[in-house]
Amino acid sequence: MEFTVAQAGGYIEGRVAGLGMREAGDEGHFFIFQGDLEEIDESERAMGWDTYHVNIDDEETNYGGIVRCVMDRESLRIEFSPEAADALDTSELSLALELTDAELSEAARYLRMILLSGRASEHPELLISGIE
């Protein structure tokens, strides 16, 4: 899946950190990462909810499953595991970034926070370059 991100923003609501990215226009694609900032309890662990959450267009969703995430000033590329690719209906997101410096910085900060939260075995290879 490919699209150009025209808006991005991070947030913290209670114990959850999130990062949303959206294509320009009301009908465009969007992508949301969420991660838990607090210790995961046993019931969440048993359900497989002890890692970050990925949502595409409010339709496809998955916990974990990002193998590699590469971000620079112009693009964000996300590769999914075969299991996540089945759940999300795509093996990869290739996003062009048309964001301000502040949005890029915020997006990079939230990506690190979210994708490195939860179960260590689900942490992806995360490469962020050229963004402060």
List keywords for this structure.
Imm10, globular, 132 residues, alpha+beta, Immunity protein 10, 9-stranded mixed sheet
* Beta-strand content: 35-45%
Could you give the distance between the termini? 27 Å
Mean pLDDT: 91
| Helix and strand composition category | alpha+beta
The count of strands amounts to 9
Number of helices: 3
Spans where pLDDT lies below 50 across 5 or more residues: none
The value of Rg in angstroms is: 14 Å
Tell me the helix content.
Answer: 10-25%
Can you write the helix and strand succession as a string?
EEEHEEEEHEHE
| Main sheet makeup | 9 strands, mixed
What shape does the CA trace take?
globular
The largest sheet has its strands arranged as 5-4-3-2-1-8-7-6-9
In total, the number of domains comes to 1
Task: Briefly say what this structure is.
The protein is an alpha+beta fold.
Give an overview of the whole structure.
The protein has 132 residues and is an alpha+beta fold. The protein has one domain. The protein has three helices and nine strands. Strands 5-4-3-2-1-8-7-6-9 form a nine-stranded mixed sheet. β1 and β2 form a beta hairpin. The two termini are 27 Å apart. The mean pLDDT is 91. It comes from Glycomyces buryatensis. This is Immunity protein 10. Pfam families: Imm10.
List the helices and strands and how they pair.
Blueprint: E1 2-13, E2 16-23, E3 30-36, H1 42-47, E4 53-56, E5 60-63, E6 66-71, E7 75-80, H2 82-88, E8 92-97, H3 101-115, E9 125-128
Parallel strand pairs: 1-8, 6-9
Antiparallel strand pairs: 1-2, 2-3, 3-4, 4-5, 6-7, 7-8
